[in-house]
Every structure is written in structure tokens, then in C-alpha cells.
Amino acid sequence: MSLPRARRDGLRVKETTDGRLAVYDEHAEQGHLLSPLCATVFHLADGHRTLTDLTTAATRAHPTADTTVLRLALTELNTAHLLDNPPSEPDNTPQPALRHIPATELHPPSRDRRGAGP
Fold first, then answer.
1. What is the 8-class DSSP label of residue 5?
2. Which of 3, 20, 79, 103 is the most exposed place for a label (fewest CB within 10 A)?
3. Beta bridge partner(s), residue 21
4. Which domains does the chain have, with CATH numbers?
């Protein structure tokens, strides 16, 4: 299991007065402005905390945050290449909200009701 760890090399980081975090990636020559929650997750992701530990710590500053929101924040940080170690949590990942169901499962085969008595 890999524990999420925020990247530190090649980044210039500056906190803004409104709780956001400005991060400039010197390697990619690209800037990112993290929301207050993503900034908190970025600071907490030290490679030693599980998703549960991150959620517990993040809810101190962001009481409405839950595991789903933390996963989204980690996904965003990973997409922006701001994590050295992307998270992986075995067997406790939430099931997708949408799954494809064959039409035969949605509508049972119709029965011919002709000749069926009361």
C-alpha cells in the first residue's frame, strides 16, 4: 500500500491570505492555485498518513471534509503532478456511482399472458 506524499522538489510554494496555496512547478514551468482544502491535504500528505489519517487531520480545519472529498483532492494533486507517491488503498475504495447494466437486467423478459387464467 502506498501512502500519499506531496512532492517537495522543484516546487516554489507560497500561502495566500485566503488560505489557498500558490505552487509553481519549476520542472513543468506551470503554476497551480490550490483551494484551502487541497492546500491542507498537500501539507498533510507526508508519506506516513493513510487516507483515514489524512481525513481525520483535514477535518480539523475543514469540518465538512470526508474521505470522498479527500480522495478527490488527492486525485487533483496527482493530476497536477504534485504528489511523489499517489495514494492507493486496497479493498476500501468506494464503488463507482455509475455502472453499466445490461438491458436484460433492467427489464425481465416479457411473459406471454395470453391464455393465462385468473
1. E
2. 103
3. 15, 34
4. 5-106 (3.90.930.60)
Q: Are 86 and 78 in contact (CB under 8 A)?
A: yes
pTM here?
A: 0.72
Q: What is the pLDDT of residues 29-58, one digit of tens each?
A: 999 999 999 999 999 999 999 999 999 999
Confidence of residue 116 (pLDDT cuts 50, 70, 90): low
Residues 3 and 96: their CA atoms lie apart, in Å, by 22
